[in-house]
Protein: Sulfite dehydrogenase (Cytochrome) subunit SorB
Organism: Mesorhizobium qingshengii
Amino acid sequence: MNKTIAAILFGAAMTGLASGEPMTYKLPDETAHFKDAPGVEAVQTNCSACHSSDYIATQPSRQGEKFWTAEANKMIKVYGASIDPSAVDAIAKYLAANY
């Protein structure tokens, strides 16, 4: 008898879940934007998949191309980021010059 009641309650719960409205939400507006400069397209295409412009703007400033090249390569090799290896130079130059 307990199994029957449990099955009925489970079925009722599943029916309620199946007929529910999908949850919707609005993401907040970004408060930072990538600076318009040579290489911005490479950063938007390759870095924005994982990082917002807010996140990039909070990184240590004026690190230089060598730092950003190492960071981009780390994203590729360690984290499996889908960064186009041919874009690493443009990404590093852009970030070094603008952040």
